[in-house]
Amino acid sequence: MSFALPPDTAAWLHQEARAGFEVAYFEALNNGWRAQGWTTAVEEGETWVVRYDIRLDEAWTTRRAEVWGRSVSGERSTVVEADGAGHWLVDGQAAPHLDGCLDVDLESSAMTNAFPVHRMALPVGAKAEAPAAYVRAVGLDVERLEQSYERLANEDTRQRYDYAAPVFNFACHLVYDESGLVLDYPGIATRAQ
């Protein structure tokens, strides 16, 4: 299974869990991909802004993510780096709690759910665990997030997955476009562009 090339830009309207908007830009590099984006939101009465610059290798495995955030508590930044084999550094320090993770997942972003789908290229009916280095929107703390994806049968050119993140007692049905970017993330965001 392969995806079409990502568009130059995409955007998502965040809803239900928070009110906000995300815009991302994609760039092909000699050795992979670059995704840059911005999310602004109001969540539980608190405003925040997150900016990211993420580098992926040819297989869409996260290699580096620089994340900047601003909330009423101040400005923050963090850098997470991976060797592509499941070992991570957070701000230059070893992060053994992230061992085995191959993706970064930003709490602020609907776009980052594209990474494991591209990387795993699951056939219809297959299910896989995809733990991620999870960067929180406020404070930019980096945690381990256990999650899974199960590929469902296509009903058209869109791909569908059952997604679960047990720590949040959250499960939903994700719909992706032909380039592997999420179109519908129930309770979180819908594609606006």
What descriptors fit this protein?
mainly beta; three-stranded mixed sheet; 4% helix; 55% strand; Glycolipid-bd_prot_put; Glycolipid-binding domain-containing protein
Question: Please, could you describe this protein's structure?
Answer:
It is a single chain. The protein has 193 residues and is mainly beta. The chain has one domain (9-191). 4% of the residues lie in helices and 55% in strands. The protein has a 14-stranded antiparallel sheet with strand order 8-7-6-5-4-3-2-1-17-16-15-14-13-10, with helices on one face. A three-stranded mixed sheet has the order 9-11-12, with no helix packed on it. The mean pLDDT is 96.
Write the layout of secondary structure elements.
Elements: E1 9-14, E2 19-29, E3 32-43, E4 46-57, E5 62-71, E6 74-82, E7 88-90, E8 93-94, E9 103-106, H1 114-120, E10 127-129, E11 132-135, E12 142-145, E13 148-152, E14 159-165, E15 170-176, E16 182-185, E17 189-191
Parallel strand pairs: 9-11
Antiparallel strand pairs: 1-2, 1-17, 2-3, 3-4, 4-5, 5-6, 6-7, 7-8, 10-13, 11-12, 13-14, 14-15, 15-16, 16-17
